[in-house]
Amino acid sequence: MNEEILTPILDVLDIAGIAIFALSGAVIAAREQQTFVTMGFFALVTGVGGGTVRDLLIGAPVFWITDAWVAAVCLGCALIAWFTPVRLWQGKLFDLADGVGLAAYAVLGSAKAMAYGVPPVPAVLMGIITGCVGGIIRDVVAGRPSIIMQPELYVTAAALSSAFTVIGMLLAPVLMLPNFAIWIGAFTAGFALRAAAIQWELGLPSYRGPKKEDGADPVSGTDPASPSTRD
């Protein structure tokens, strides 16, 4: 492995992503009035879920198994959520904090994948997975609609940070830029897009084809109740 991945900049992004996602998981459990044990579980799963999947896919040691501070940070975030009113963790400010974690984790994931020799396109996907999978697991376990099922710019922001990271690291020798400048720029780009989406409710266009509940088959576009399609 390229030891350059172990840098202060990425360490900061790592802790920021873990803490913010862990707090978001604990807050979801708090809104459902769960026990502290459940809040701690949600904090851990949300904080390390994306990084765990990434490390398993790229053949790296699972990061939180070898670093005791990760679990401590997650449980600390659960404690913060336990002792503070839920109303403090609502609204755009909390969404913006989540955007910080998303962009930070996307940069970290793609940079770590590059350091392990993963090709550029899969490295971008590793950044997206790192940034999004923890929240997906949290939502599935909580039985709530996941943000990735909305047209809101969320995965797109993670993809932007990941793509900037990979492209920037590939071009860094030509541009004579240090990697830390690439990482900061990639984080800024992804967070700016996410913040704009939150502020102005930006989203991608949704699919407008025939819906199954309208009676038409979503693949063929024919109505199964019509005489030509009945048995």
Brief account:
The chain contains seven helices and no strands. It has 231 residues and is an all-alpha fold.
Descriptive report:
By secondary structure, the chain is mainly α. Helices cover 66% and strands 0% of the residues. The protein has helices spanning 8-31, 36-58, 68-82, 92-115, 120-142, 155-175, 179-200. Residues 224-231 have low confidence and may be disordered.
Outline, from the CA principal axes?
Answer: globular
Overall pLDDT score: 88
Major pleated sheet: none
What is the H/E order? HHHHHHH
- pLDDT < 50 stretches: 224-231
Structural class: mainly alpha
* Beta-strand segment tally: 0
By DSSP (H or I, 4+ residues per run), the number of helices equals 7
Strand content: under 5%
User: What Rg, in angstroms, do the CA atoms define?
Assistant: 20 Å
Q: What is the share of helical residues?
A: 55-70%
> CA-to-CA gap between the ends?
61 Å
Walk me through the topology.
Blueprint: H1 8-31, H2 36-58, H3 68-82, H4 92-115, H5 120-142, H6 155-175, H7 179-200
Helix pairs in contact: 1-2, 1-3, 1-4, 1-5, 2-3, 2-5, 4-5, 4-6, 4-7, 5-6, 6-7
Note the main attributes of this structure:
231 residues, mainly alpha, 7 helices, globular
